[in-house]
Amino acid sequence: KRLAIFGRRLAITLMAVCGLVFTIGIIRGEPPLIMFLTALSLAVAAIPESLPAVVTISLAIGARKMVRQNALIRRLPAVETLGSVTYICTDKTGTLTMNKMAVEEIYVDGKIVRSPEFGVLSLKQDQPSTLLYNAMILNNDTANGGDGRPIGDPTEVALFVAAEKAGLDKKLVESRFKRIAEIPFDSDRKCMTTIHEVPEGGFLSITKGAIEVILDKSVNVLTSQGSIDINREEIAKVSERMAADGLRILGLGIRRFEILPDGIHPRDIECDLILIGMVGIMDPPREEVKEAVALCRSAGIHPVMITGDHPITARAIARRIGIIDDSGEIMTGTKLERMPMEEFEKKVKDIRVYARVAPDQKLKIVKALQDDGEFVAMTGDGVNDAPAIKRADIGIAMGITGTDVAKEASDMVLLDDNFATIVRAVAEGRHIYDNIRKFVRYLLTTNSGEIWTVFLAPLVGLPMPLLPIHLLWINLVTDGLPALALSIEPPEGNVMARPPRHPKENLFAGGLWQHVLWVGLLMGGICLFTQALAIKNGFHWQTMVFTVLGLLQMGHVLAIRSERESLFKQGLFSNRPLFGAVFLTFALQIFIIYAPFMQRIFKTVSLSPKEFIMCIALASVVFFAVEIEKLLKRRGS
Fold first, then answer.
1. CA–CA separation, 528 vs 551, rounded Å?
2. 569 Cβ partners below 8 Å, 6+ apart?
3. pLDDT for the residue numbered 326
4. Burial label, 621 (beta-carbon count in 10 A; 0-12, 13-18, 19+)
5. Could you give the residue numbers annotated as active site?
6. Does residue 139 contact residue 206 with C-beta atoms inside 8 Å?
7. Which tens digits make up the pLDDT trace of 292-305?
Protein backbone atom coordinates (compact mmCIF):
# COMPACT_ATOMS: atom_id res chain seq x y z
CA LYS A 1 0.00 0.00 0.00
CA ARG A 2 2.79 2.39 0.93
CA LEU A 3 4.68 1.60 -2.29
CA ALA A 4 1.58 2.22 -4.42
CA ILE A 5 1.09 5.69 -2.91
CA PHE A 6 4.78 6.46 -3.25
CA GLY A 7 4.85 5.27 -6.87
CA ARG A 8 2.12 7.70 -7.91
CA ARG A 9 3.86 10.65 -6.27
CA LEU A 10 7.23 9.66 -7.69
CA ALA A 11 5.87 9.43 -11.25
CA ILE A 12 4.40 12.94 -11.07
CA THR A 13 7.62 14.40 -9.64
CA LEU A 14 9.83 12.71 -12.21
CA MET A 15 7.69 13.85 -15.10
CA ALA A 16 8.15 17.43 -13.91
CA VAL A 17 11.94 16.95 -13.55
CA CYS A 18 12.25 15.38 -17.00
CA GLY A 19 10.22 18.23 -18.50
CA LEU A 20 12.55 20.70 -16.82
CA VAL A 21 15.65 18.89 -18.15
CA PHE A 22 14.21 18.98 -21.68
CA THR A 23 13.39 22.69 -21.39
CA ILE A 24 16.84 23.66 -20.05
CA GLY A 25 18.52 21.66 -22.83
CA ILE A 26 16.52 23.39 -25.52
CA ILE A 27 17.29 26.82 -24.01
CA ARG A 28 21.00 25.93 -24.07
CA GLY A 29 20.77 25.06 -27.74
CA GLU A 30 20.96 21.26 -27.51
CA PRO A 31 19.36 19.34 -30.44
CA PRO A 32 15.64 18.83 -29.67
CA LEU A 33 15.69 15.14 -30.66
CA ILE A 34 18.64 14.40 -28.39
CA MET A 35 17.03 16.26 -25.48
CA PHE A 36 13.72 14.48 -26.06
CA LEU A 37 15.44 11.10 -26.02
CA THR A 38 17.49 12.11 -22.97
CA ALA A 39 14.42 13.25 -21.03
CA LEU A 40 12.57 10.09 -22.03
CA SER A 41 15.52 7.87 -21.08
CA LEU A 42 15.88 9.69 -17.79
CA ALA A 43 12.22 9.06 -17.01
CA VAL A 44 12.65 5.35 -17.78
CA ALA A 45 15.83 5.17 -15.73
CA ALA A 46 14.49 7.17 -12.79
CA ILE A 47 11.26 5.24 -12.27
CA PRO A 48 12.06 2.00 -10.40
CA GLU A 49 9.86 -0.17 -12.59
CA SER A 50 11.45 -3.32 -11.16
CA LEU A 51 10.29 -2.45 -7.64
CA PRO A 52 6.86 -4.18 -7.79
CA ALA A 53 8.45 -7.32 -9.23
CA VAL A 54 11.23 -7.35 -6.65
CA VAL A 55 8.73 -6.84 -3.80
CA THR A 56 6.55 -9.68 -5.06
CA ILE A 57 9.52 -11.98 -5.52
CA SER A 58 10.79 -11.09 -2.04
CA LEU A 59 7.42 -11.89 -0.48
CA ALA A 60 7.20 -15.15 -2.44
CA ILE A 61 10.68 -16.19 -1.31
CA GLY A 62 9.67 -15.37 2.27
CA ALA A 63 6.50 -17.44 1.96
CA ARG A 64 8.55 -20.36 0.68
CA LYS A 65 10.94 -20.08 3.63
CA MET A 66 8.04 -19.94 6.06
CA VAL A 67 6.32 -23.04 4.73
CA ARG A 68 9.56 -24.91 5.31
CA GLN A 69 9.23 -23.79 8.92
CA ASN A 70 5.61 -25.05 9.09
CA ALA A 71 3.95 -21.65 8.51
CA LEU A 72 1.78 -21.72 5.39
CA ILE A 73 1.07 -18.19 4.12
CA ARG A 74 -2.35 -17.96 2.46
CA ARG A 75 -2.18 -14.22 1.62
CA LEU A 76 1.16 -12.94 0.35
CA PRO A 77 1.05 -9.44 1.96
CA ALA A 78 0.87 -11.16 5.36
CA VAL A 79 4.58 -12.01 5.00
CA GLU A 80 5.51 -8.34 5.34
CA THR A 81 2.64 -7.51 7.74
CA LEU A 82 3.95 -9.97 10.33
CA GLY A 83 6.76 -7.52 11.09
CA SER A 84 4.25 -5.08 12.63
CA VAL A 85 2.66 -7.51 15.10
CA THR A 86 2.58 -6.17 18.67
CA TYR A 87 0.29 -8.77 20.29
CA ILE A 88 0.10 -12.52 19.65
CA CYS A 89 -3.12 -13.91 21.13
CA THR A 90 -2.82 -17.67 21.20
CA ASP A 91 -4.75 -20.70 22.33
CA LYS A 92 -3.07 -22.80 25.00
CA THR A 93 -3.84 -26.40 24.15
CA GLY A 94 -1.68 -27.71 21.33
CA THR A 95 -0.13 -24.33 20.59
CA LEU A 96 1.66 -23.50 23.82
CA THR A 97 1.40 -27.07 25.03
CA MET A 98 2.15 -30.40 23.38
CA ASN A 99 -1.51 -31.41 23.03
CA LYS A 100 -0.54 -34.81 24.38
CA MET A 101 -2.73 -35.03 27.41
CA ALA A 102 -2.47 -37.62 30.13
CA VAL A 103 -4.49 -38.17 33.29
CA GLU A 104 -2.25 -37.27 36.24
CA GLU A 105 -4.66 -37.26 39.18
CA ILE A 106 -8.17 -38.48 39.92
CA TYR A 107 -10.33 -37.25 42.78
CA VAL A 108 -12.89 -39.84 43.78
CA ASP A 109 -14.61 -40.82 47.05
CA GLY A 110 -13.08 -37.90 48.92
CA LYS A 111 -9.44 -38.61 48.05
CA ILE A 112 -6.91 -37.97 45.28
CA VAL A 113 -5.74 -41.08 43.46
CA ARG A 114 -2.50 -40.78 41.47
CA SER A 115 -2.38 -44.37 40.18
CA PRO A 116 -5.56 -45.67 38.55
CA GLU A 117 -7.37 -48.30 40.60
CA PHE A 118 -8.97 -51.08 38.62
CA GLY A 119 -12.65 -50.54 38.15
CA VAL A 120 -15.38 -53.15 38.10
CA LEU A 121 -17.23 -53.66 34.85
CA SER A 122 -20.67 -52.99 36.24
CA LEU A 123 -22.86 -50.03 37.01
CA LYS A 124 -25.03 -51.94 39.37
CA GLN A 125 -22.75 -51.25 42.29
CA ASP A 126 -22.67 -47.53 42.94
CA GLN A 127 -18.99 -47.49 43.85
CA PRO A 128 -17.43 -44.14 42.94
CA SER A 129 -14.30 -45.54 41.27
CA THR A 130 -16.40 -48.04 39.32
CA LEU A 131 -18.73 -45.38 38.02
CA LEU A 132 -15.97 -42.88 37.34
CA TYR A 133 -13.89 -45.13 35.09
CA ASN A 134 -16.96 -46.39 33.27
CA ALA A 135 -18.15 -42.81 32.77
CA MET A 136 -14.74 -41.82 31.43
CA ILE A 137 -14.98 -44.44 28.71
CA LEU A 138 -18.71 -44.15 27.96
CA ASN A 139 -18.83 -40.36 27.62
CA ASN A 140 -16.07 -40.53 25.07
CA ASP A 141 -15.86 -40.57 21.26
CA THR A 142 -12.32 -41.93 21.05
CA ALA A 143 -11.79 -44.93 18.78
CA ASN A 144 -8.88 -47.28 18.16
CA GLY A 145 -7.01 -46.52 14.95
CA GLY A 146 -5.73 -49.02 12.46
CA ASP A 147 -2.32 -49.02 14.15
CA GLY A 148 -3.83 -49.63 17.56
CA ARG A 149 -3.41 -46.04 18.68
CA PRO A 150 -6.48 -44.16 19.94
CA ILE A 151 -7.89 -41.49 17.64
CA GLY A 152 -9.90 -38.53 18.84
CA ASP A 153 -9.86 -35.32 20.82
CA PRO A 154 -6.71 -35.22 22.98
CA THR A 155 -8.71 -34.75 26.19
CA GLU A 156 -10.93 -37.72 25.42
CA VAL A 157 -7.92 -39.79 24.38
CA ALA A 158 -6.37 -39.13 27.81
CA LEU A 159 -9.56 -40.30 29.55
CA PHE A 160 -9.77 -43.32 27.26
CA VAL A 161 -6.17 -44.37 27.98
CA ALA A 162 -6.64 -43.94 31.75
CA ALA A 163 -9.79 -46.08 31.68
CA GLU A 164 -8.04 -48.78 29.64
CA LYS A 165 -5.18 -48.79 32.17
CA ALA A 166 -7.84 -49.34 34.82
CA GLY A 167 -8.75 -52.56 33.01
CA LEU A 168 -11.76 -51.52 30.99
CA ASP A 169 -12.49 -52.51 27.39
CA LYS A 170 -14.38 -49.81 25.52
CA LYS A 171 -16.19 -52.16 23.14
CA LEU A 172 -17.32 -54.39 25.98
CA VAL A 173 -18.50 -51.51 28.14
CA GLU A 174 -20.35 -49.86 25.24
CA SER A 175 -22.02 -53.14 24.29
CA ARG A 176 -23.47 -53.43 27.79
CA PHE A 177 -24.40 -49.77 28.20
CA LYS A 178 -25.62 -48.78 24.78
CA ARG A 179 -25.54 -45.08 23.96
CA ILE A 180 -28.96 -43.94 22.78
CA ALA A 181 -28.54 -40.17 22.70
CA GLU A 182 -25.96 -37.41 23.00
CA ILE A 183 -25.96 -33.70 23.73
CA PRO A 184 -22.73 -32.51 22.11
CA PHE A 185 -20.29 -30.13 23.75
CA ASP A 186 -20.65 -26.45 22.99
CA SER A 187 -18.76 -23.43 24.21
CA ASP A 188 -21.78 -21.92 25.99
CA ARG A 189 -22.63 -24.95 28.14
CA LYS A 190 -18.99 -26.10 28.48
CA CYS A 191 -20.06 -29.70 28.87
CA MET A 192 -21.10 -32.84 26.96
CA THR A 193 -23.72 -35.41 27.88
CA THR A 194 -24.36 -38.98 26.71
CA ILE A 195 -27.37 -41.09 27.62
CA HIS A 196 -27.17 -44.88 27.96
CA GLU A 197 -29.46 -47.80 28.58
CA VAL A 198 -28.72 -49.67 31.80
CA PRO A 199 -28.96 -53.49 31.59
CA GLU A 200 -30.84 -53.61 34.90
CA GLY A 201 -33.42 -51.19 33.51
CA GLY A 202 -33.76 -47.44 33.13
CA PHE A 203 -31.34 -44.93 31.74
CA LEU A 204 -28.20 -43.16 32.83
CA SER A 205 -26.94 -39.77 31.69
CA ILE A 206 -23.25 -38.96 32.01
CA THR A 207 -22.20 -35.31 31.87
CA LYS A 208 -18.57 -34.31 31.44
CA GLY A 209 -17.22 -30.79 31.49
CA ALA A 210 -15.39 -28.04 33.35
CA ILE A 211 -15.50 -28.77 37.06
CA GLU A 212 -17.21 -25.51 38.03
CA VAL A 213 -19.94 -26.21 35.47
CA ILE A 214 -20.52 -29.77 36.72
CA LEU A 215 -20.35 -28.56 40.33
CA ASP A 216 -22.99 -25.94 39.61
CA LYS A 217 -25.28 -28.58 38.07
CA SER A 218 -24.78 -31.14 40.88
CA VAL A 219 -26.83 -31.58 44.05
CA ASN A 220 -25.06 -34.65 45.49
CA VAL A 221 -21.66 -36.32 45.46
CA LEU A 222 -21.11 -40.08 45.34
CA THR A 223 -19.07 -41.70 48.11
CA SER A 224 -18.50 -45.28 49.18
CA GLN A 225 -21.32 -44.74 51.72
CA GLY A 226 -23.68 -43.65 48.95
CA SER A 227 -24.92 -40.35 47.58
CA ILE A 228 -24.66 -37.45 50.04
CA ASP A 229 -25.19 -33.70 49.93
CA ILE A 230 -22.38 -32.01 48.11
CA ASN A 231 -19.87 -29.81 49.95
CA ARG A 232 -19.13 -27.28 47.24
CA GLU A 233 -16.41 -25.46 49.17
CA GLU A 234 -14.46 -28.65 49.79
CA ILE A 235 -14.71 -29.76 46.16
CA ALA A 236 -13.70 -26.26 44.97
CA LYS A 237 -10.61 -26.27 47.25
CA VAL A 238 -9.51 -29.67 45.91
CA SER A 239 -9.98 -28.58 42.30
CA GLU A 240 -8.02 -25.38 42.94
CA ARG A 241 -5.19 -27.36 44.49
CA MET A 242 -5.09 -29.65 41.46
CA ALA A 243 -5.32 -26.69 39.06
CA ALA A 244 -2.44 -24.95 40.85
CA ASP A 245 -0.22 -27.82 39.68
CA GLY A 246 -1.11 -26.95 36.09
CA LEU A 247 -3.74 -29.67 35.70
CA ARG A 248 -6.84 -29.20 33.61
CA ILE A 249 -9.78 -30.28 35.76
CA LEU A 250 -12.81 -32.08 34.37
CA GLY A 251 -15.79 -33.09 36.42
CA LEU A 252 -18.10 -36.04 35.69
CA GLY A 253 -21.66 -36.28 36.95
CA ILE A 254 -24.47 -38.78 36.45
CA ARG A 255 -28.21 -38.86 36.69
CA ARG A 256 -30.55 -41.84 36.61
CA PHE A 257 -33.89 -41.89 34.79
CA GLU A 258 -36.59 -44.50 34.91
CA ILE A 259 -38.20 -42.82 31.90
CA LEU A 260 -36.51 -40.21 29.74
CA PRO A 261 -38.25 -36.84 29.41
CA ASP A 262 -39.89 -35.98 26.11
CA GLY A 263 -37.20 -34.50 23.89
CA ILE A 264 -33.57 -34.62 24.88
CA HIS A 265 -32.78 -31.09 26.02
CA PRO A 266 -29.90 -29.88 28.22
CA ARG A 267 -32.22 -28.10 30.67
CA ASP A 268 -33.98 -31.40 31.44
CA ILE A 269 -30.94 -33.68 31.46
CA GLU A 270 -28.01 -31.60 32.72
CA CYS A 271 -29.41 -30.77 36.15
CA ASP A 272 -29.70 -32.40 39.60
CA LEU A 273 -26.53 -34.37 38.89
CA ILE A 274 -24.56 -36.61 41.21
CA LEU A 275 -20.86 -35.71 41.06
CA ILE A 276 -18.84 -38.91 40.86
CA GLY A 277 -15.35 -37.46 40.61
CA MET A 278 -12.82 -35.13 39.05
CA VAL A 279 -10.02 -35.89 36.62
CA GLY A 280 -6.81 -33.82 36.47
CA ILE A 281 -5.21 -33.85 33.03
CA MET A 282 -1.74 -32.53 32.28
CA ASP A 283 -0.81 -31.10 28.91
CA PRO A 284 2.87 -30.18 29.32
CA PRO A 285 4.21 -27.02 27.66
CA ARG A 286 6.25 -27.45 24.51
CA GLU A 287 9.96 -27.33 25.24
CA GLU A 288 10.64 -24.56 22.72
CA VAL A 289 7.77 -22.30 23.84
CA LYS A 290 9.53 -20.73 26.84
CA GLU A 291 12.37 -19.57 24.60
CA ALA A 292 9.88 -18.31 21.99
CA VAL A 293 7.99 -16.30 24.63
CA ALA A 294 11.27 -14.76 25.84
CA LEU A 295 12.12 -13.89 22.24
CA CYS A 296 8.73 -12.18 21.88
CA ARG A 297 9.44 -10.04 24.92
CA SER A 298 12.87 -9.01 23.62
CA ALA A 299 11.19 -8.05 20.33
CA GLY A 300 8.58 -5.86 22.02
CA ILE A 301 5.76 -8.32 21.29
CA HIS A 302 3.23 -9.22 23.98
CA PRO A 303 2.16 -12.89 24.03
CA VAL A 304 -1.36 -13.40 25.37
CA MET A 305 -2.75 -16.82 26.33
CA ILE A 306 -6.45 -17.50 25.79
CA THR A 307 -7.82 -20.76 27.15
CA GLY A 308 -11.00 -22.44 28.27
CA ASP A 309 -9.20 -23.91 31.28
CA HIS A 310 -9.63 -23.01 34.93
CA PRO A 311 -7.94 -19.69 35.86
CA ILE A 312 -5.57 -21.41 38.28
CA THR A 313 -4.53 -23.94 35.64
CA ALA A 314 -4.06 -21.12 33.15
CA ARG A 315 -1.89 -19.20 35.64
CA ALA A 316 0.28 -22.25 36.35
CA ILE A 317 0.98 -22.86 32.66
CA ALA A 318 1.45 -19.15 31.88
CA ARG A 319 3.97 -18.78 34.73
CA ARG A 320 5.85 -21.87 33.62
CA ILE A 321 6.40 -20.52 30.11
CA GLY A 322 7.02 -16.91 31.15
CA ILE A 323 3.88 -15.15 29.94
CA ILE A 324 3.06 -13.74 33.39
CA ASP A 325 4.70 -13.48 36.79
CA ASP A 326 3.15 -13.98 40.23
CA SER A 327 1.40 -10.61 40.10
CA GLY A 328 0.01 -11.03 36.60
CA GLU A 329 -3.73 -10.44 36.22
CA ILE A 330 -6.01 -13.11 34.75
CA MET A 331 -9.43 -12.31 33.32
CA THR A 332 -12.17 -14.89 33.07
CA GLY A 333 -14.69 -15.13 30.30
CA THR A 334 -17.52 -14.38 32.73
CA LYS A 335 -15.90 -11.10 33.80
CA LEU A 336 -15.05 -10.26 30.21
CA GLU A 337 -18.65 -10.78 29.14
CA ARG A 338 -19.98 -8.43 31.83
CA MET A 339 -17.39 -5.71 31.25
CA PRO A 340 -18.43 -2.84 28.92
CA MET A 341 -16.20 -2.37 25.88
CA GLU A 342 -15.09 1.10 26.99
CA GLU A 343 -13.89 -0.20 30.35
CA PHE A 344 -12.26 -3.27 28.81
CA GLU A 345 -10.27 -1.12 26.36
CA LYS A 346 -8.68 0.61 29.35
CA LYS A 347 -7.56 -2.72 30.85
CA VAL A 348 -6.83 -4.85 27.79
CA LYS A 349 -3.13 -3.97 27.60
CA ASP A 350 -2.58 -5.22 31.15
CA ILE A 351 -4.13 -8.65 30.60
CA ARG A 352 -1.85 -11.47 29.49
CA VAL A 353 -4.02 -14.49 30.34
CA TYR A 354 -7.71 -15.11 29.68
CA ALA A 355 -9.34 -18.20 31.22
CA ARG A 356 -12.71 -19.86 30.69
CA VAL A 357 -13.09 -17.82 27.52
CA ALA A 358 -15.66 -18.70 24.88
CA PRO A 359 -14.49 -18.51 21.24
CA ASP A 360 -16.80 -15.61 20.42
CA GLN A 361 -15.15 -13.53 23.17
CA LYS A 362 -11.88 -13.60 21.22
CA LEU A 363 -13.45 -11.08 18.87
CA LYS A 364 -13.94 -8.65 21.75
CA ILE A 365 -10.27 -9.01 22.70
CA VAL A 366 -9.11 -8.36 19.13
CA LYS A 367 -11.36 -5.29 18.76
CA ALA A 368 -10.20 -3.80 22.07
CA LEU A 369 -6.52 -4.17 21.18
CA GLN A 370 -7.02 -2.78 17.68
CA ASP A 371 -9.01 0.18 19.00
CA ASP A 372 -5.99 0.93 21.17
CA GLY A 373 -3.74 1.02 18.12
CA GLU A 374 -2.21 -2.44 18.49
CA PHE A 375 -1.44 -4.86 15.66
CA VAL A 376 -2.88 -8.26 16.58
CA ALA A 377 -2.22 -11.84 15.55
CA MET A 378 -4.94 -14.25 16.69
CA THR A 379 -4.94 -18.03 16.58
CA GLY A 380 -7.93 -20.33 16.42
CA ASP A 381 -9.11 -23.72 15.22
CA GLY A 382 -12.89 -23.90 15.52
CA VAL A 383 -15.77 -22.56 13.47
CA ASN A 384 -16.57 -20.06 16.23
CA ASP A 385 -13.00 -18.72 16.07
CA ALA A 386 -13.42 -17.60 12.45
CA PRO A 387 -14.76 -14.05 13.18
CA ALA A 388 -11.82 -13.25 15.48
CA ILE A 389 -9.33 -14.75 13.00
CA LYS A 390 -10.89 -12.70 10.19
CA ARG A 391 -10.86 -9.48 12.22
CA ALA A 392 -7.25 -9.84 13.41
CA ASP A 393 -4.48 -8.12 11.48
CA ILE A 394 -2.90 -11.56 11.11
CA GLY A 395 -5.36 -14.44 11.44
CA ILE A 396 -3.71 -17.76 12.21
CA ALA A 397 -5.44 -21.13 11.90
CA MET A 398 -4.27 -24.46 13.23
CA GLY A 399 -3.21 -26.86 10.49
CA ILE A 400 -3.66 -30.08 12.46
CA THR A 401 -6.75 -29.42 14.58
CA GLY A 402 -8.19 -26.47 12.65
CA THR A 403 -11.49 -26.59 10.81
CA ASP A 404 -11.81 -25.63 7.15
CA VAL A 405 -13.80 -22.55 8.17
CA ALA A 406 -10.97 -21.31 10.42
CA LYS A 407 -8.36 -21.95 7.72
CA GLU A 408 -10.42 -20.13 5.10
CA ALA A 409 -10.64 -17.05 7.35
CA SER A 410 -6.92 -17.03 8.12
CA ASP A 411 -3.88 -15.31 6.63
CA MET A 412 -1.54 -18.05 7.84
CA VAL A 413 -1.90 -21.72 8.76
CA LEU A 414 0.36 -23.36 11.35
CA LEU A 415 1.15 -26.78 9.96
CA ASP A 416 2.47 -27.94 13.35
CA ASP A 417 0.07 -25.94 15.62
CA ASN A 418 3.14 -24.60 17.44
CA PHE A 419 3.46 -21.14 19.04
CA ALA A 420 7.20 -21.11 18.32
CA THR A 421 6.34 -21.28 14.60
CA ILE A 422 4.41 -17.99 14.91
CA VAL A 423 7.46 -16.32 16.46
CA ARG A 424 9.70 -17.66 13.69
CA ALA A 425 7.23 -16.31 11.12
CA VAL A 426 7.28 -12.88 12.79
CA ALA A 427 11.09 -12.89 12.67
CA GLU A 428 10.97 -13.80 8.98
CA GLY A 429 8.41 -11.03 8.37
CA ARG A 430 10.73 -8.48 9.96
CA HIS A 431 13.64 -9.83 7.92
CA ILE A 432 11.67 -9.49 4.68
CA TYR A 433 10.58 -5.93 5.49
CA ASP A 434 14.21 -5.04 6.19
CA ASN A 435 15.17 -6.39 2.78
CA ILE A 436 12.35 -4.49 1.09
CA ARG A 437 13.68 -1.30 2.66
CA LYS A 438 17.19 -2.18 1.46
CA PHE A 439 16.29 -2.49 -2.18
CA VAL A 440 13.97 0.53 -1.99
CA ARG A 441 16.94 2.43 -0.55
CA TYR A 442 19.16 1.08 -3.31
CA LEU A 443 16.84 1.70 -6.26
CA LEU A 444 15.80 5.20 -5.24
CA THR A 445 19.32 6.30 -4.37
CA THR A 446 20.86 5.06 -7.61
CA ASN A 447 18.01 6.49 -9.67
CA SER A 448 18.29 9.84 -7.91
CA GLY A 449 22.03 9.78 -8.66
CA GLU A 450 21.21 9.49 -12.36
CA ILE A 451 18.68 12.33 -12.13
CA TRP A 452 21.07 14.69 -10.32
CA THR A 453 23.84 13.92 -12.82
CA VAL A 454 21.71 14.79 -15.85
CA PHE A 455 19.79 17.61 -14.16
CA LEU A 456 22.73 19.51 -12.64
CA ALA A 457 25.19 19.24 -15.55
CA PRO A 458 23.54 21.98 -17.66
CA LEU A 459 23.11 24.18 -14.58
CA VAL A 460 26.87 24.16 -13.90
CA GLY A 461 27.77 24.74 -17.55
CA LEU A 462 28.77 21.18 -18.46
CA PRO A 463 27.61 19.36 -21.61
CA MET A 464 25.04 16.59 -21.33
CA PRO A 465 27.07 13.93 -19.47
CA LEU A 466 25.30 10.81 -20.73
CA LEU A 467 23.59 9.60 -23.86
CA PRO A 468 20.08 8.08 -23.67
CA ILE A 469 21.51 4.60 -24.29
CA HIS A 470 23.86 5.01 -21.32
CA LEU A 471 20.94 5.77 -19.01
CA LEU A 472 18.97 2.81 -20.31
CA TRP A 473 21.94 0.47 -19.90
CA ILE A 474 22.63 1.53 -16.31
CA ASN A 475 18.94 1.19 -15.52
CA LEU A 476 18.80 -2.27 -17.10
CA VAL A 477 21.90 -3.62 -15.38
CA THR A 478 21.76 -1.97 -11.94
CA ASP A 479 17.98 -2.17 -11.30
CA GLY A 480 17.80 -5.89 -11.96
CA LEU A 481 20.12 -8.50 -10.50
CA PRO A 482 21.60 -6.48 -7.58
CA ALA A 483 18.13 -5.48 -6.35
CA LEU A 484 16.93 -9.09 -6.57
CA ALA A 485 20.03 -10.27 -4.70
CA LEU A 486 19.26 -7.79 -1.90
CA SER A 487 15.88 -9.49 -1.43
CA ILE A 488 17.64 -12.64 -0.20
CA GLU A 489 20.07 -10.83 2.09
CA PRO A 490 20.49 -12.87 5.33
CA PRO A 491 18.78 -11.42 8.43
CA GLU A 492 20.69 -9.08 10.68
CA GLY A 493 21.41 -10.14 14.25
CA ASN A 494 19.08 -7.59 15.86
CA VAL A 495 15.96 -8.50 13.89
CA MET A 496 14.18 -9.71 17.08
CA ALA A 497 15.93 -7.34 19.47
CA ARG A 498 13.97 -4.23 18.53
CA PRO A 499 10.33 -3.21 18.97
CA PRO A 500 7.78 -3.78 16.18
CA ARG A 501 7.50 -0.99 13.67
CA HIS A 502 4.24 0.90 13.72
CA PRO A 503 1.93 -0.36 10.94
CA LYS A 504 1.41 3.24 9.78
CA GLU A 505 5.13 4.00 9.84
CA ASN A 506 6.31 5.65 6.66
CA LEU A 507 8.48 3.48 4.43
CA PHE A 508 11.10 6.25 4.54
CA ALA A 509 11.26 6.47 8.33
CA GLY A 510 14.50 5.81 10.14
CA GLY A 511 16.61 8.07 7.94
CA LEU A 512 15.88 6.37 4.61
CA TRP A 513 14.78 9.50 2.73
CA GLN A 514 17.76 11.45 4.07
CA HIS A 515 20.05 8.67 2.82
CA VAL A 516 18.42 8.72 -0.62
CA LEU A 517 18.86 12.49 -0.81
CA TRP A 518 22.47 12.89 0.33
CA VAL A 519 23.88 9.78 -1.36
CA GLY A 520 22.04 10.60 -4.60
CA LEU A 521 23.51 14.11 -4.52
CA LEU A 522 26.94 12.67 -3.73
CA MET A 523 26.69 10.34 -6.74
CA GLY A 524 25.66 13.22 -8.96
CA GLY A 525 28.47 15.39 -7.60
CA ILE A 526 31.09 12.68 -8.18
CA CYS A 527 29.90 12.16 -11.75
CA LEU A 528 30.05 15.89 -12.50
CA PHE A 529 33.46 16.14 -10.85
CA THR A 530 34.62 13.24 -13.03
CA GLN A 531 33.25 14.97 -16.11
CA ALA A 532 34.89 18.31 -15.31
CA LEU A 533 38.23 16.71 -14.41
CA ALA A 534 38.25 14.54 -17.53
CA ILE A 535 37.40 17.47 -19.84
CA LYS A 536 40.14 19.56 -18.26
CA ASN A 537 42.74 16.81 -18.75
CA GLY A 538 41.59 15.74 -22.19
CA PHE A 539 40.35 12.32 -21.06
CA HIS A 540 37.46 10.36 -22.59
CA TRP A 541 35.01 12.14 -20.28
CA GLN A 542 31.66 10.64 -21.42
CA THR A 543 32.84 7.02 -21.14
CA MET A 544 34.42 7.84 -17.77
CA VAL A 545 31.18 9.38 -16.43
CA PHE A 546 29.26 6.38 -17.76
CA THR A 547 31.66 3.97 -16.01
CA VAL A 548 31.83 5.90 -12.73
CA LEU A 549 28.03 6.07 -12.43
CA GLY A 550 27.68 2.32 -12.96
CA LEU A 551 30.47 1.46 -10.50
CA LEU A 552 29.14 3.96 -7.91
CA GLN A 553 25.93 2.00 -7.78
CA MET A 554 27.78 -1.27 -7.28
CA GLY A 555 29.74 0.21 -4.38
CA HIS A 556 26.50 1.51 -2.92
CA VAL A 557 24.71 -1.84 -3.07
CA LEU A 558 27.57 -3.50 -1.19
CA ALA A 559 27.54 -0.81 1.50
CA ILE A 560 23.78 -0.92 2.22
CA ARG A 561 23.54 -4.65 2.85
CA SER A 562 23.12 -3.58 6.47
CA GLU A 563 21.82 -0.31 7.90
CA ARG A 564 24.35 -0.51 10.74
CA GLU A 565 26.93 -3.28 10.36
CA SER A 566 30.04 -2.82 8.23
CA LEU A 567 30.49 -4.92 5.11
CA PHE A 568 33.88 -5.95 6.45
CA LYS A 569 32.16 -7.51 9.49
CA GLN A 570 29.40 -9.13 7.42
CA GLY A 571 31.83 -10.63 4.95
CA LEU A 572 31.87 -10.10 1.21
CA PHE A 573 30.66 -13.65 0.49
CA SER A 574 27.86 -13.86 3.08
CA ASN A 575 25.45 -13.01 0.23
CA ARG A 576 26.96 -14.87 -2.70
CA PRO A 577 24.19 -13.97 -5.22
CA LEU A 578 24.80 -10.28 -4.55
CA PHE A 579 28.54 -10.68 -4.93
CA GLY A 580 27.89 -12.52 -8.21
CA ALA A 581 25.56 -9.76 -9.43
CA VAL A 582 28.16 -7.06 -8.66
CA PHE A 583 30.92 -9.06 -10.34
CA LEU A 584 28.76 -9.70 -13.43
CA THR A 585 27.82 -6.00 -13.69
CA PHE A 586 31.49 -5.02 -13.42
CA ALA A 587 32.42 -7.52 -16.14
CA LEU A 588 29.64 -6.28 -18.45
CA GLN A 589 30.74 -2.69 -17.96
CA ILE A 590 34.29 -3.61 -19.00
CA PHE A 591 32.87 -5.54 -21.95
CA ILE A 592 30.92 -2.61 -23.42
CA ILE A 593 33.89 -0.27 -22.90
CA TYR A 594 36.52 -2.43 -24.59
CA ALA A 595 34.66 -4.70 -27.06
CA PRO A 596 34.78 -2.96 -30.48
CA PHE A 597 31.28 -3.94 -31.62
CA MET A 598 29.82 -2.81 -28.24
CA GLN A 599 31.68 0.49 -28.59
CA ARG A 600 29.78 1.18 -31.79
CA ILE A 601 26.45 0.49 -30.08
CA PHE A 602 27.09 2.37 -26.84
CA LYS A 603 29.30 5.14 -28.25
CA THR A 604 32.10 4.27 -25.83
CA VAL A 605 35.88 4.30 -26.22
CA SER A 606 38.60 2.23 -24.63
CA LEU A 607 39.85 3.83 -21.43
CA SER A 608 43.54 3.93 -20.67
CA PRO A 609 44.74 2.19 -17.46
CA LYS A 610 45.10 5.61 -15.83
CA GLU A 611 41.55 6.58 -16.76
CA PHE A 612 40.12 3.26 -15.59
CA ILE A 613 41.95 3.37 -12.25
CA MET A 614 40.66 6.92 -11.78
CA CYS A 615 37.11 5.67 -12.41
CA ILE A 616 37.47 2.93 -9.77
CA ALA A 617 38.97 5.37 -7.24
CA LEU A 618 36.18 7.93 -7.73
CA ALA A 619 33.47 5.23 -7.68
CA SER A 620 34.69 3.96 -4.29
CA VAL A 621 33.89 7.27 -2.58
CA VAL A 622 30.22 6.42 -2.04
CA PHE A 623 31.06 3.02 -0.57
CA PHE A 624 33.34 4.54 2.07
CA ALA A 625 30.96 7.45 2.71
CA VAL A 626 28.09 5.03 3.52
CA GLU A 627 30.42 2.94 5.69
CA ILE A 628 31.27 6.12 7.66
CA GLU A 629 27.53 6.86 7.98
CA LYS A 630 26.98 3.40 9.51
CA LEU A 631 29.98 3.88 11.84
CA LEU A 632 28.45 7.11 13.15
CA LYS A 633 25.12 5.30 13.69
CA ARG A 634 26.83 2.58 15.72
CA ARG A 635 28.71 5.09 17.84
CA GLY A 636 25.59 7.21 18.29
CA SER A 637 23.68 4.29 19.76
1. 15
2. none
3. 80
4. middle
5. 91
6. yes
7. 999 999 999 999 99
